[in-house]
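So, does this match?
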Amino acid sequence: MAKITSEEGFVLEFELLPRSKEDIFEKYFPVRCSLMYQNKPILNEDILRRDSDYSRSGFPGGFVGEEIDSFSLIEDLEYVRDNRKSRIWTSFPHEDLEVAIYPGLFPYIGEHDSEYFTFMFYPCGCRFKDVNVCSRSPVCFVMSPDLNEYNKFIEDLKKEYEQLKSLNV
């Protein structure tokens, strides 16, 4: 599991999951994301949509998304680090998760040679109970890791991804 942790104890976690052998969409990589504070979910489970096996596979207080064939979030993270230009990653084919990645501290971007990066995490609005339209959620979580934590996050995601690929699931 890859994590970004703030000094105050907030944690953004991403975990890649093995594909189900019964899954009709064999090329999908499920990804779970959670938002925690002091080891407790930030979001109340009672407000989240859990009406399918797909939505129930998220962590308590978290969300699930997927990618086809490869996990492009890794490429986007590396691009932002290496080119100092922003990128937005969206889970596909279901746009349940979105992460905007900026060099520097957003919205106070200023110089892009800052040793910090900004993650803006948006779950899809339809991941909440009683929301019937898929749209960018009005809920956004922002984390600003330094370069060392950013690189560790990338490396942890790469390890998980390579491990899953080697299992051929």
Observations:
- Strands lie at 2-5, 10-16, 28-37, 40-41, 62-68, 87-90, 97-103, 117-123, 141-143.
